[in-house]
Amino acid sequence: MRTFRDVSLTIILSAAFLVLVEACLRFAGVNFQGSFYRLDRNIGYALRPRAEGWNEKEHETYVRINSQGLRDREHSLERPANVIRIAVVGDSFSEAKEVDQDATYWSVMERELNRRLPAGSPRIEVINFGTDGYGLSQEYLVLKEKVWRYDPQIILLSGTLHSFVLHSSRKFGTVSAEGPVPFFVRSGEGVVLDRDSQQEQRAFVPPSRMSELIADSTNSSRVLALVNTVRRQLAQDASDLEKRLHGASVATQKEVKDTENAVLRGPADADLESAWQISEALIRVAHTEAVAHHAELWLVLLDMAPQVDPDPAKRAAVMRTLGIDDLFIGDKLFAGFAEREGIKHAMLAPALMEYAQQHRAVLHGFPHRPRNSGHWNAIGHQAAGHLIATRLLDCSDVIRAQASLAAGPRTACADAWVP
Question: Is residue 320 located within the same domain as residue 201?
Answer without folding.
Answer: yes
